[in-house]
Amino acid sequence: MKPNEPRGAPPRVLTLRFRNLRTYQRLKQVAALVGTSMNEIAEAAVERELDFLSADLESQLTETVEALKSWRSTEADIERDIQQFGDAESSLRDPMRATLRTIKLVDPLNIGALFADSVEH
């Protein structure tokens, strides 16, 4: 019985499908040589791999948590950041800003003039 298994708990089932026939054959041979089941060897290998991967993930998460803990801001920091953002937004010309241009319309029949002053005098 494994340390984390409750007494009398049924084993969990996972069907493994080996794409590499050689891996399956080696697992079968080693199990026969050692005198244990293929399941026990496969489970032990998976546990070792998960321990290895988990340690790396735990390390990455710890680094992230430490980075987050180191980021502290005060009210003054927030006000300064808002001011710097506003300054940056207002100091550069907005390339998308529309500008009013006068253009010479082509209106050979002077139709625009007919509708230019619709208020009767």
Summarize the topology.
Elements: H1 21-34, H2 38-70, H3 75-91, H4 111-116
Helix pairs in contact: 1-2
Write up what this structure looks like.
This protein is an all-alpha fold. The chain is 58% helix and 0% strand. The protein has helices at 21-34, 38-70, 75-91, 111-116. Helix 1 (21-34) crosses helix 2 (38-70). The N and C termini lie far apart (103 Å). The mean pLDDT is 84.
Shape: elongated
Note the run of SSEs as H and E.
Answer: HHHH
Number of helices: 4
Q: Please report the distance between the alpha carbons of the first and last residues.
A: 103 Å
The description of the largest β-sheet is: none
Q: What is the residue-averaged pLDDT?
A: 84
Radius of gyration: 37 Å
Number of strands: 0
Flag low-confidence runs: none
| Beta-strand percentage range | under 5%
Query: Strand pairing plus helix content: what structural class?
Result: mainly alpha
Helix proportion range: 55-70%
Q: Can you give keywords for this protein?
A:
4 helices; mainly alpha; single chain; 58% helix; 121 residues
Short description:
This protein is mainly alpha-helical and 121 residues long. It contains four helices and no strands. The protein has helices at residues 21-34, 38-70, 75-91, 111-116.
